[in-house]
Amino acid sequence: MKVTQGSETNIFEYSDYRKYLADYYTQKKINNPGYSHRVFARQAGLSSPSHLLMIIKGERNLSIKTISKFSDGLKLSIKEKRYFELMVLYTQTNELELKARYFGEIISMKATISGLYKLEKDKFDFLSQWYFVAIYVLIGLTVFKADPQWISRRLGNKITPTQAKDTLEKLLKLNMIETDPLNGFKQASGAVTVADDTRSIAVFEYHQSMIRLAFEALKHKPLTEREMAGATISIPKDKLPEIKEKIRAFRKEINQLASSYQDSEEVYQLNIQLFALSEEI
Fold this sequence. Notes:
single chain; 434 Repressor (Amino-terminal Domain); two-stranded antiparallel sheet; 12 helices
């Protein structure tokens, strides 16, 4: 956010609380040269005037107790206090599952504020929710019907007709699909661009859901409708990039092959996982 004379720092434009605090302090200092770390510490009920600076620099983290004190010092509303707390929890945790949960709440809160943030939520959903991509691909089938109930059934009733309808509306807003007089909708050439932190969390959510769906397919789908194979191998560390490049090339080859087919009837998911079983000790 650009800091200028007379403006205020909008907390909802941030996902990193340290960056928000830095800009907040700079903005306060520009508007009131007498503002200082000591003033903030007094307003927040902190004993050390250097506490704010240490937090901004990443030398210390905020605890649940100090989150509340900082919120008071920042003079935040109830909604802003919850948003600030989520930013702190999101920034400070290293556990991806928790990070994804906090980020999801951050995006959802922002979506209730303005249309601009609602679009950001739609982009996150497209990248993180498995059925957004599935419906997008389903639209490309010659048998596609622009009927939420039909879509729900074709996806094994894993989503509701309401979710299907909502997804179609969001895909339209994202310019990923467009209306078609023949089939109701058709795929468009739109692209979804998002911030790096949004993409990284969305990718985690996406792969997590696809792995879960793969497990369900393993349990319930007949062998004629799935192919699952694995290999436990040893790899020299310096050869790992070569293996990963081979995997990317294979995925690209399969994608190009599938794209060349005409009159496709079903949507499939191809998952490829490579990860270390052993660890250095």
